[in-house]
Structure prediction request, 448 residues.
Amino acid sequence: MSRHRRRRFEDLFNRTSGRVHGYSSRLQRFIRLSISFRISLSYSWLLLKSFFPFAVLVILLFGLVQAGHYAQVQREALELLPSPESVGVELLRTYGETPEGLVIYDGWGIYWQTQPPRVFVQYAYPYEGGYAQLLFPLENDWYLLSRVLLALFGILLLASLSFLTNAKRVNKKILRPIADITAAAQRMNEKNLSERINVAGTQNELRDLAVVINDTFSRLEAAYNRQKQFVSDASHELRTPIAVIQGYAGLLDRWGKDNPDVLAEAISAISSETQSMKELVENLLFLARHDKKTLSLAFEPFDSAEMLRELVRETQLITSGAEIIEGSIARCALTADRASVKQAVRVFMDNAIKYSGENGKISVSSQTLGNQLHITVSDNGRGIAKGDLPRLFDRFFRADDARNSQTGGHGLGLAIARIIAVSHGGKIHVKSKPGEGSAFTLVLPRGG
Prediction:
């Protein structure tokens, strides 16, 4: 094949392929009918299918109406035997043991004639040693019934065509919530999370769907706002130690190299801020693992009393000023993640030490109630204002007076403690009164 002919063949093939692709695309668009038209098509098909049960119902009703007429004619025909033709009944006499045709109930039945083909309602009556079968012609009844059925079919067909031709107008109001959902979803972005679907005028399932989606949008907005606030707070908490480290690094560069006092102060401050950043990053990683559902806990049985006494001893060694008291500690075999439970109780103790002052008294105790272990850390510190209690376990939340003090912390400890409690199927109780101290109780199922 020459190059010219090959090129012409390729061009023809490409044009043909393009046309076939265009036709197939238009066919697919035609097949993928709009939801409005598909709903109307479904309504139309349901109407057409309903013709058959309607037809059966009409036939039964027609038969019930005509039953009284047949009974009246039957009585008159029996009185006129052997010549009942004057009341419109044909007569067939049989002399066998059973009448011809099909007897269904009490002499009434169906009789069919082959030449010419006809169907009758019959009544078989014992007469002169045989049977007198009164035959009721159905031609007139069938004519009337067929016209009724034809009219019924015509009405259903017209209704179906009306649904199809007026699909857009008929379904516009019904499908309005779906259009609103689409429009609301298209308008929603990170700058417009308050968009909601208008549920006014919608009914039943579509209204319920719109309400559910609005609730989903509200939860999405709340989650996005929490995430945004979390990032903002985390950035704020990291900005301060970074600024301090940068400041002392500059101070060392300018004067600290040859000044032992400045050098010692800078090293101490940088070490302190580095430790603070380390604790913050560890807390953030803990929260991130929890949010991503990757937080892993190792549930094993251990002696909670031994763990609490160990924590009290460790805290006494590193705490100066405040008095750490070992209260009544009940022995209990607790099935839980030992490290995380100890971390939660340590959060309570650290907060108690921070907000109790130099003469603070912090008591650690535990008791078993039923199948639960209650671990309580109480102090005689400043207490918590009533207005701050609802937000006490929010991330990065600290009361205003605590935020302005020199107690430190990042406002993540109680949030982490709550996550640990919930992860163990437990909860946290808080009792506090300004000026009279606070008591935090970790309630855990004993398990095992």
Summary: Residues 204-256 form the longest helix (53 residues).
